Structure prediction request, 738 residues.
Amino acid sequence: MRMKGTEIFVESLRREGVRVVFGHPGGAILPIYDRLYDAEIRHILMRHEQAAAHAADGYARASGRVGVAMATSGPGATNLVTGIASAFMDSVPMVIFTGQVPSTLIGTDAFQEADVVGITRPCTKHNYLVLRIEDLARTIREAFYLARTGRPGPVLVDLPKDTQLSECEFVYPEEVKLRGYRPVLDGDPEAIRQAAVAILEAKRPVIYAGGGVIASEGAAELRRLAEMACVPVATTLMGLGSFPTEHPLSLAMLGMHGSWYANMAINRCDLLIAIGVRFDDRVTGKIAAFAPEARKIHIDIDPVEINKNVRVDIPIVGDVRRVLSVLNAELEARLKEHWTEAWEAERQAWLEQITEWKRIYPFCYDFDERVIKPQWVIEEIARVTQGEAILTTDVGQHQMWAAQYYRFKHPRTWITSGGLGAMGFGLPAAIGAWFARPDRPIIAICGDGSFQMTMQELAVVAEHRLPLKIVIINNSYLGMVRQWQEIFYNGRYSASDLRVSPDYAKIAEAYGLRGYTVRRPGELAELFEQELLASEPILFDVHVAAEENVYPMVPPGAAITEMILGPVGSKRIADSKESIA
Amino acid sequence: MIRTIILAVENRPGALARITGLFSARGINIESLTVARTDDPTLSHMTIVVDLDDVALEKLLKLLDRLVDVVTVTAVDVRNAVERELLLLKVRHEPGQKLELLKEAEIFRARVVDVSPQSYVLELTGDEEKLEAFIRVFEKYGILELVRSGKVAMARG
Prediction:
């Protein structure tokens, strides 16, 4: 059947199962928007293209499906870049469509022209400029295939206006033929056997689990591995939700703002089982001092990650869920012969050591009855939602407190810009997450600095009456910048003071939403109980202790055990000296 | 260490930029680069010469292999590959030197591809050592211009 480019676009998206796209129109993409006017696919009009990309990201992470964002040429496309780069760093499956000036005008510095495939080349998994209408269907097919398979990532398709308007015979290819793209899904059986032996022989093993566990839907296999082989689990920021925080084997998060006990365990372990992680600098601190006594197993779908930052002893390239499922079967068979009371006792000794570390210094802070402590806000959210909500965050102190103090239960309930660290991510990501999972409570935990970067998206919340809860952890500072300036720059708060800020509750009201300003601990608990699970959008502007710091903290470049503990942590460690000795 | 990388790449716009982007983003300078179509018009053969240590080379090869446009990638050296480079050399010929000059060109099996009253253009193919030796010998005549194609390489066997 002959079809116009815009028809091919809509039909191809329908075949890919796309139900919702996030975007913003403009001149070069008007033909497609005209076709969307009466298409089945739902288009959500975001108020800035960066937010469209973050919303598609939030949708993808909450659902596991490919998120779709679209914008016009030139400034529309360049505004998407932050969101694309964030999705690229966090391996989020997304397809992004941009309008482009007509092919006859490409390269003439035409109005709203930008070299979008050039600009996005280093921050996409792959990208396309579709100059021939005959290539359109195949390109869309390939884009979705590339985005969701192997190591997921964003793929951009740039569509000149004349491509959208021309016609050709529509054939949607059944198969994708890409001879340069062959992701390895099954791990090498011999390496998996070696890993099983190493796990059984280790005396002090630790699992270091990351976003790859969630991307591959491998949380159940991870839990089985941990429980069967009695191995404690530390997760990265991206891995939160892959293992329940309240599980006895949980070490919570590791790394720069990770738990003291996770970092102690990593430091002392004799076997590190790294699963779906990339040994990021915010996790490892000083590389030479990271798990210095340990043999290392590394399971990851991307061969590039193997030996990138840390040399490992047993590399296994493959899909995390598939590899873990074979590894678990192998372990189960071997455990029958290998299990002895002495083995069990050795494991118990290691777990007891960890329990002791947890007792000495858990995440903790000084509660205050007069001023709201930010950590307590997160604890209250965890209490009221019972860990069943989807949390999205911006970037900074509030993000770290949320990571530390929320009680994660399920994968795909923690949506944060981890690698790129893009401020302004939380609200648009929450909007995207709602379209994926309208059945779950969704809470955007925002910083007052970050919120101001994308707060115009309140219009989208209002337009669709999305029952999101927005909790601004308001300390009238760019808090993490201020914390670094306090610790590393002699308290010179250069450009981090946000004293002049709007009344966020009134801003919510201006959009027709309910907003609360909360200043006293007494108000907060009651308000959250009444309103946090309400079925309408509400913004909570929570004024917290302004100069509270995130502890513990590994200074940049230091070993992960050289943590700045803060007043409470220091006291606890000091009091415990006897019992450690 | 000087390394030679050979790639088979989809013959499409953007493929070269994607490949060179991996180098420039990491501050790795490309010593030489050749690209041309193969017997399969949809495939380009690429030879890239870089100065890298073992660890950096291993990382770079994996990054190149990850690109959707890269079909195959290997690092080669003289033991497992044939390497050739083309040199064009414009050299002055003084009246009394012509015979000697042409004789020396003959020793290297260089060909004269252009003649003018003051100069010859010589063409030579060979491996790097041969080209370097040739240049050293002809320096004494006064080199007016020198162009090297960059290396092309093909795995043996």
